[in-house]
Write a structure and sequence with these properties.
The complex is a heterodimer.
Chain A lengths: L1 H7 L13 H28 L3 H4 L15 H8 L2 H32 L5 H10 L5 H14 L7 H4 L7 H12 L3 H9 L4 H12 L1 H17 L2 H6 L8 H8 L9 H31 L5
Chain B lengths: L1 H24 L5 H11 L10 E8 L2 H4 L5 H7 L3 E8 L4 H10 L6 E2 L7 H6 L7 H7 L10 H6 L1 E2 L2 E2 L2 E13 H6 L16 H11 L11 E5 L35 H15 L7 H8 L11 E7 L13 E4 L11 E10 L6 H12 L1 H11 L7 H8 L7 H13 L1 E3 L1 H4 L3 H16 L5 H17 L1
Parallel strand pairs in B: 1-2, 7-8, 10-11
Antiparallel strand pairs in B: 3-10, 4-5, 6-8, 6-9, 6-10
The chains are: A mainly alpha, B alpha/beta.
């Protein structure tokens, strides 16, 4: 009896409960709902990747697979030359990122740190190249590369990255201009050449900007479909997007969506990893800036 | 300063190394190299001693790239010819082909597998005239069991520009489970069965249609996707393009999309959705079947009129299916659309003679029979090989498939998308303009004059 009584009248906690603000509760609920909505397609992607072909056709669709087909993750390697395509995409994207960072950072440094005749003109000219849509340069570029005998090699997909891209140069230039002159003056006093200042002062301080450019360049190359389609003709050189587009290429069959979802899940891995790594770089970049 | 130079030099060296290594990977087999060699040896091409490489450009999907498996046998028989298959996903097929041709790397053999059709290729002057080659070679369609009517499709003004290889038709697939549940008799596969009319089909469809608030329970009797949208009036006997279109390489002198007869024909089809309510509207179809899907496959449609390629997936359907004739709609001559895919030699081909050898090989009865299995059910033009095709589908009576095919050939008309110029633009425009009618937001009387005006503009381009 006494126990019941005791539990019945539990003494209130002595610490006062924090005040609940309705606005905060509302925004929290909104965030949870939006997050759920955003994650739903992702959830369906993973769920479909584990369904059988027959279950994939069902309507209404099942939320979770009725029978979990883990073998789909093996099948994709048999259906496509998935491993080779994955490696090809990684090589091309990796080198493109390297090329983009190298060239864009160099050019951006020049635009940011030097004042010369026609500086503005060249910069505007550079930016105006952003107005050109890819189909406009597609054929001339193809003719150029085919004259160089680069067809069916990775070169047309990588080499252009070593010549900078307007958007990335613009982005990095804006960042470099925010770096204080004092740092470079100090470098000059210590006897640094320009290249060394670029490498030892500008680059280490630009972690966030470089990380952003790296992510952009990687995603661009990783997702690019048209350029590999145009330049590659041997199956063993195809990239992931080409292989995935081919899965839905048949006008006459039901596309194997379940396998396509497997490919999509696996294709997401490098981007998520890169994002995780680059995000850390973001933070470090800010911590290490060294200017207070 | 020295150190800086060293760094720069290292970076440059590394870059050069990577670049050269990668270019080294390419070996000597690219299409580019082949065309390059061909330039030098064009004068000698055709002689037996010189080895020649031809390129076959196709879609990168299993039902097209199976030809790769046929190459070793062909190369054994023709030691002087090497065949290389170049491929692209469906959506990029046209742009890659255009770029290859513009860039001087034209493939030798291809078909109109993308959005563009034969007439578009013909009018862009992309095709090689095979007439002399055929004469010189003594090629006869009959030797390959190709019906003469089919050969005529790709002959313009007595010049042959393509040889048929596959033939799809329009047919009706029906869901046997749904028919059984509604206790209905199956539709006939015989085109001569006079009772099988459009009205009879609507009748059956009404008995199977269940419209419910619960989307999972809703099902419709029929989905009528007969041919591309601009061709559908033909089913009811109305002709939107003038007669001369079919004789002069696909350039119509007149079109009649705003004529009362054409509008009335469309009205009959839209009545299926809005008046009789036996067909799904496009929004419902999309929500049930997803992107470029088919609600029939999801088991929500009793009868589906569409291309015979739907048969190729039949073995995967989660219900029992049958094939039937397209019902009679009022046109005594035309009830089925034919989609005859030709093999074409491109004008810039450096080795048309060798390309023609390869085409002939693909048409032989033996290879056509093998192709059915390898492609997973592509219908051959070769009538002898077709016997094997009829037996290819699990659970479907081969006699039905045969009857439907024979009827379709008798009452068939080649699909407009192969016969009319600038067709991909016409088709895009048509889909966009007619969409408000499909969703019930506009009437045909409002839309058809606009379509008529735009078609005229596109044809003149």
């Amino acid at each position: 009896m006494s126990i019941l009584k005791a539990t019945g009248s539990r003494p209130s906690l002595s610490r006062p409960r924090p005040k609940v603000e309705p606005v905060k509760v509302f925004s929290f609920i909104t965030l949870v709902v939006t997050t759920f909505l955003m994650l739903l397609p992702l959830f369906f992607m993973v769920s479909t990747s584990l369904k059988s072909k027959r279950e994939m056709l069902k309507f209404p669709p099942t939320f979770l697979p009725e029978s979990w087909q883990w073998s789909n993750y093996k099948d994709i390697f048999d259906t496509l030359q998935f491993g080779t395509m994955y490696m090809n995409s990684l090589i091309i994207a990796g080198l493109s990122v390297f090329g983009t960072l190298l060239s864009s950072a160099l050019v951006a440094y020049g635009f940011a740190r030097y004042r010369g005749k026609g500086n503005q003109f060249w910069f505007i000219l550079l930016l105006s190249t952003m107005m050109l849509p890819y189909p406009a340069i597609m054929i001339p570029q193809f003719v150029l590369f085919s004259k160089m005998n680069w067809i069916d090699t990775f070169l047309p997909l990588i080499v252009p990255a070593f010549f900078g891209s307007a958007y990335n140069i613009f982005l990095l230039r804006q960042f470099f201009t925010t770096l204080p002159d004092e740092l470079f003056d100090a470098g000059r006093i210590d006897g640094c050449g320009e290249l060394r200042m670029w490498r030892t002062i500008a680059l280490p301080l630009s972690g966030p900007a470089l990380a952003t450019v790296a992510i952009f360049a990687f995603i661009y190359s990783w997702n690019d479909l048209l350029t590999p389609v145009l330049y590659l003709s041997s199956s063993e050189k195809f990239t992931l997007p080409v292989g995935m587009a081919s899965l839905t290429s048949s006008r006459f069959r039901i596309p194997p969506w379940h396998l396509l979802m497997v490919a999509s899940v696996l294709a997401m891995v490098p981007i998520v990893t890169l994002f995780a790594v680059a995000q850390k770089q973001f933070v470090e970049g800010i911590v290490l800036t060294g200017i207070k | 300063m020295n150190k800086n130079r060293k760094t720069l030099a290292t970076v440059l060296a590394a870059t050069t190394l990577i670049v050269t290594t990668l270019s080294g990977c390419s070996g000597g087999k690219s299409a580019g190299n082949v065309a390059g060699e061909a330039n030098g040896g064009a004068a000698n091409s055709g002689t037996n001693s010189e080895q020649v490489t031809i390129t076959h450009y196709t879609i990168d999907s299993e039902d097209r790239t199976f030809i790769e498996k046929l190459i070793p046998e062909f190369e054994k028989e023709h030691p002087n010819i090497k065949v290389k298959v170049e491929k692209a996903p469906y959506e990029q097929f046209d742009s890659k082909l255009q770029t290859l041709i513009a860039g001087g790397k034209s493939p030798d053999v291809t078909s109109h597998y993308g959005y563009g059709g034969f007439a578009e290729y013909y009018n862009k002057d992309m095709l090689f005239d095979m007439t002399d080659l055929i004469k010189e070679d003594g090629f006869k369609a009959a030797d390959y069991n190709i019906p003469d009517d089919l050969m005529k499709i790709y002959t313009v003004k007595d010049h042959t520009y393509g040889i048929p290889v596959n033939m799809y038709v329009t047919l009706m697939l029906y869901n046997k489970d749904m028919f059984d549940a509604a206790q209905l008799s199956y539709p006939p596969s015989d085109y001569e069965d006079k009772s099988w009319t459009f009205a009879a089909m609507v009748d059956k469809a009404k008995k199977m249609t269940v419209v419910s608030d619960n989307i999972a329970k809703t099902q419709y009797g029929v989905d009528f996707t007969w041919a591309e949208r601009d061709m559908r009036p033909l089913y009811f006997g109305a002709e939107p393009y003038s007669e001369d279109t079919w004789t002069n390489g696909g350039v119509p002198s007149e079109t009649h999309f705003d004529s009362p007869k054409v509008i009335a024909a469309y009205q009959k089809l839209f009545d299926l959705i809005f008046k009789d309510k036996v067909s799904p509207n496009s929004e419902w179809s999309k929500s049930v079947a997803g992107q470029n899907g088919d609600p029939f496959v999801a088991g929500k449609i009793g009868m589906s009129i569409g291309g015979s390629w739907n048969l190729a997936g039949a073995n995967d359907f989660p219900f029992k299916i049958g094939v039937a004739a397209v019902p009679w709609g009022g046109n005594d001559k035309v009830r089925s659309t034919l989609y005859v895919d030709p093999l074409l030699i491109l004008k810039d081909s450096k080795h048309p003679k060798e390309a023609f050898e390869w085409i002939k090989y693909l048409l032989t009865t033996d290879v056509q029979e093998k192709s059915i299995e390898l492609s997973g059910g592509n219908p051959p033009v070769n009538t002898e090989a077709a016997e094997v095709y009829y037996k290819h589908f699990e659970g479907i009576d081969p006699a039905d498939v045969k009857k439907v095919y024979e009827g379709a050939i008798k009452y068939g008309y080649e699909s407009y998308n192969h016969l009319i110029t600038n067709y991909s633009q016409i088709n895009d425009m048509f889909i966009n303009e007619i969409q408000p009618v499909e969703t019930g937001h506009k009437t045909l009387e409002e839309v058809m004059p606009v379509i008529q005006k735009k078609v005229t503009e596109i044809i003149k381009r």
